[in-house]
Design goal:
single chain; 356 residues; alpha/beta; Rossmann fold; 3 domains; three-stranded antiparallel beta sheet; disordered C terminus
């Protein structure tokens, strides 16, 4: 009671809702909508290809949407805040693929594979990943700036790092963390920071977290001594369900960085995917697939250009030249050739790389 009376002038100015249920419900609703639309589009695509797709046969799978929600929750896709786009894409793709694999295996083991179309499952699988991500983006785009969206977060530290964190979260509300209070031990910084009240010292954090039901906190004090920072983290880790620590690694790339436990020592692993065999093979397969299908789609255009060159200019349609690239390997370039008949006109070629 004394705490509430002492902080009432600052807390009464807060118009943000501290209830997180709307964000969670809308995120789950977006996932269900995306999965449902993907399923219906898969059926529609199958009906266009085969001409006969029994829609009633697939309605029994609707209760299985709970599998997707349970899997998404298991991998940490809920409540859907403080997720980087890369992590969200990765886990939505992996978890959706896992559910479809389990579903397909179950149908196969029950010897019901002849009843269902493979086209439906293949199309629904790909479309589910795309539409879940799109539905999540759409919900955030529509509601991220609403006062009730997101989860309240308490920022520990009103210095330059705290200032940067608050500005970033306010500028990017789709992250889903709404700073509502700031604490700092320096009385000169008490007041407000970008409209967020700075109400007192760090000792108030446990009481404020309980009074305002705050589950997230950000330790934005990378310049404090190591011993004090460790004590601070250990103390408040028992108070907040989610404690984010901002390290002194500014201008350090956060993409493909993962925390590792090295026998009790915290390490940050920076991964270069294209130096790993698996991602390199995946990239090669993707490049070959897009090149093959893209080449087939562009084949009529290439033939049309070749015929126009043949009609317009004498000589060969293609010319070949070699250039030397890295590792001293020759690379042949196949060019569309076009010589202009009149002087003072340009000579143009269009190059196509042909590895040797």
């Amino acid at each position: 009671m004394q705490l509430n009376r002492a902080l009432q002038p600052a807390l009464s100015a807060l118009s943000l809702s501290i209830r997180s249920y709307p964000t969670l419900i809308l995120t789950i609703g977006a996932d269900l909508l995306g999965l449902s639309v993907a399923g219906w589009l898969g059926l529609y695509i199958d009906s266009l290809i085969d001409g006969n797709s029994p829609f009633d046969l697939y309605t029994q799978f609707y209760p299985l949407l709970g599998w997707f929600i349970l899997t998404y929750a298991t991998v940490g896709l809920y409540p859907g805040v403080a997720l980087s786009p890369v992590d969200e894409l990765r886990w939505v793709s992996l978890s959706t693929t896992l559910v479809y694999l389990v579903l397909s295996s179950t149908i196969f083991l029950r010897q019901e594979g002849e009843l269902y179309s493979r086209t439906v499952f293949l199309a629904a699988w790909i479309l589910s990943i795309l539409f879940v991500l799109f539905a999540r983006w759409l919900v955030r785009h529509w509601f991220a700036r609403q006062p009730w969206w997101g989860y309240p977060v308490l920022v520990l530290g009103a210095g330059k790092t705290g200032d940067m964190v608050i500005r970033t979260l306010q500028r990017r509300p789709a992250i889903g963390l709404k700073p509502i209070l700031v604490l700092d031990d320096n009385p000169d910084k008490w007041g407000a920071l970008h409209g967020v009240p700075v109400v007192g010292s760090l000792e108030l954090a446990p009481s404020l977290a309980k009074a305002r039901r705050i589950q997230y906190a950000i330790v934005a004090m990378p310049g404090v001594p190591r011993n004090r920072l460790l004590k601070l983290v250990q103390r408040h880790a028992q108070t907040f369900a989610h404690l984010l620590v901002i390290p002194d690694l500014f201008e350090f790339s956060s993409l493909w960085v993962e925390a590792r436990d090295l026998g009790g020592v915290l390490g940050l692993e920076v991964q270069q995917r294209l130096l790993q065999p698996g991602p390199r093979l995946a990239k090669l397969l993707i490049d070959l697939t897009f090149t093959l299908f893209g080449g087939l789609l562009l084949l009529p255009l290439i033939v049309a250009i070749a015929l126009l060159i043949r009609v317009d200019s004498p000589g060969p349609i293609f010319i070949a030249s070699s250039v030397w690239v890295r590792m001293a390997k020759p690379l042949k370039l196949g060019n569309f050739d076009r010589w202009c008949a009149m002087p003072m006109r340009c000579y143009t070629t269009t190059s196509i790389a042909i590895p040797t």
